[in-house]
Each structure stands twice: as structure tokens, then as C-alpha cells.
DNA sequence: GCGACAG
DNA sequence: ATCTTGTCGC
């Protein structure tokens, strides 16, 4: 589990302050709304690190709702920022954008591995990426970043709300498979909670992770090996 | 002041 | 995220 966290290099307070302000700006761009129509193509994206100074991002496009693989691409870049909780997007989004450019077929919606608005300033990587691409996005994370929730029942399909003090709904905690740790699903940009949850459930195929992110995760690992 | 902290 | 063997449960 993520109980103990070894100390990393100190984050420059000036950089943190600047990036945090950029998030507050991006936050004003986020729009929560249902998709204009049922998606024909859904994409999944994820990043891996072949070396501590290299980031590799993958985009996998699937036909919806059949989930047949339509296309997969990847791109690598030098790492420019250490991992800082809450600022993940500034570390991975730049390279994700370059990978996205390589796609021949652009998706109607993107499932991002990480949080959407379930973030301290409501701009997790899914929302951040959605605004930069101006494409519908939502996030599927494996760990909580902020908010509180009741553990959902142990059966697949059980759902409980992820809320902020005061009652604000940040996302939903979903049991995607019997007796496995739940997923944290939240809308990113030009998407809403109901759609995010519905699409996540529609993409489950017996694994903990829905197909888009599961495959992106898989290829991020495969391409990483190829670079050795 | 003390803990929490996506990937 | 990454390092890294065996092991418990369905």
C-alpha cells in the first residue's frame, strides 16, 4: 500500500506557487456537462518512466462500446519536474499532448489514469488535459487524493460518493471487481459524473481497470521494455 | 503544529 | 511511478 512515502527532493516553493496559480486559471475553463452524443471512439492514456529522467506516454483508441482496439501510439520526452502531489499534470501532460498529436483517429472522450475534479483545486490531470486539448475527459484513479468516502460494498458495481467537507461531490468510488480495491472516478472536462461512471462501467471486462486505461497501462509497460 | 499526499 | 520473490485467496 501507500503507507510509507520515502522523502523526495524538496520542491521549489516558487515553482509550486506558480504552478498552483496556473491551475486556478485552468480551473475556470473546466466545464461539467454530458457528452453531446454517445461516443464512437474512447481513448485511454497512461505514462511510465523508462528511466528517472524519461517519461513515456501512451494513447490507446478503442471503438465504443465494442472496445476493439483501433490505434495505439506513444511518445517520450525528458522529465522536467519531479512528482509533487496535486501537480502531477505539469509532469505528465506535456508529453501526453505530444503523444495525442500522433493519433490518426481522434477519440470522442478520453479516460485518463488519475483524477478529474477530485483534486484539491478541482484540476486533476484529467481536467487539466481536457482543457488543454478541449476534448471530453474523465479520470479513473487507483488511489484517493482528496475527499472522504464510505467503503463501497465488496461486490462489483457497488458505488459510494467521494465528497468534500460541506457536501460537494468530487467523484464516485466504484468497486470494479469483486473484493478488489475500488476505483475513484471523477469528471475531467466537458463530461459529468453520470457519464464518467457509466462509461467506466461499460468498459469493464473482468479486470480491476476498465479497458482504456488497462490497455494504455499495459502498452506503457511494453514500450518501456522495448527501449532497453 | 500534525498528518495527508493521484502517478 | 519504480524497485522486486514469494505467496495468499478465489
CATH superfamily of the domain at 31-144 and 189-226: archaeoglobus fulgidus dsm 4304 superfamily
Main β sheet profile? 8 strands, mixed
Q: What characteristic shape results from the CA principal axes? A: globular
Order of helices and strands: HEEEHEHEEEEHH
Protein name: Endonuclease V
Keywords: Cytoplasm, DNA damage, DNA repair, Endonuclease, Hydrolase, Magnesium, Metal-binding, Nuclease
InterPro entries: Endonuclease-V
Pfam families: Endonuclease_5 (PF04493)
Q: Would you give an account of this structure?
A:
It is an enzyme of class 3 (hydrolase). This protein has 228 residues and is of the alpha+beta class. The chain has a domain at 31-144 and 189-226: archaeoglobus fulgidus dsm 4304 fold (2-Layer Sandwich), CATH 3.30.2170. It has helices spanning 13-27, 88-101, 125-133, 193-202, 211-226; strands spanning 41-51, 54-63, 69-78, 109-113, 137-141, 159-163, 169-174, 183-189. A hairpin with a 2-residue loop joins strand 1 (41-51) and strand 2. The longest helix is centred in the last third of the chain and has 16 residues, at 211-226. It binds two DNA strands through residues 2, 5, 46-49, 52, 55, 83-86, 88, 91-92, 113-115, 118-120, 124-125, 139, 141-146, 178-179, 184.
Amino acid at each position: 500500500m501507500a503507507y510509507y512515502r520515502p522523502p523526495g527532493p524538496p520542491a521549489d516553493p516558487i515553482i509550486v506557487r506558480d504552478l498552483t496559480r496556473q491551475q486556478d486559471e485552468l480551473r475556470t475553463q473546466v466545464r461539467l456537462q454530458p457528452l453531446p452524443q454517445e461516443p464512437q471512439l474512447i481513448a485511454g492514456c497512461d505514462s511510465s518512466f523508462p528511466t528517472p529522467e524519461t517519461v513515456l506516454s501512451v494513447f490507446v483508441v478503442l471503438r465504443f462500446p465494442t472496445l476493439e482496439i483501433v490505434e495505439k501510439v506513444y511518445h517520450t520526452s525528458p522529465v522536467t519536474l519531479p512528482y509533487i502531489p496535486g501537480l502531477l499534470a505539469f509532469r505528465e501532460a506535456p508529453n501526453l499532448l505530444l503523444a495525442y498529436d500522433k493519433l490518426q483517429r481522434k477519440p470522442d472522450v478520453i479516460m485518463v489514469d488519475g483524477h478529474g475534479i477530485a483534486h484539491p483545486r478541482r484540476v486533476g490531470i484529467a481536467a487539466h488535459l481536457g482543457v488543454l486539448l478541449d476534448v471530453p475527459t474523465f479520470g479513473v484513479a487507483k488511489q484517493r487524493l482528496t475527499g472522504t468516502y464510505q467503503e463501497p460494498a465488496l461486490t462489483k458495481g457497488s458505488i459510494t460518493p467521494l465528497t468534500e467537507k460541506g457536501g460537494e461531490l468530487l467523484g464516485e468510488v466504484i468497486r470494479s471487481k469483486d473484493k478488489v480495491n475500488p476505483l475513484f472516478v471523477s469528471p475531467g472536462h466537458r463530461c459529468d459524473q453520470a457519464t464518467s461512471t457509466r462509461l467506466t462501467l461499460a468498459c469493464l471486462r473482468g479486470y480491476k481497470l476498465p479497458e482504456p486505461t488497462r490497455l494504455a497501462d499495459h502498452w506503457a509497460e511494453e514500450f518501456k521494455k522495448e527501449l532497453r
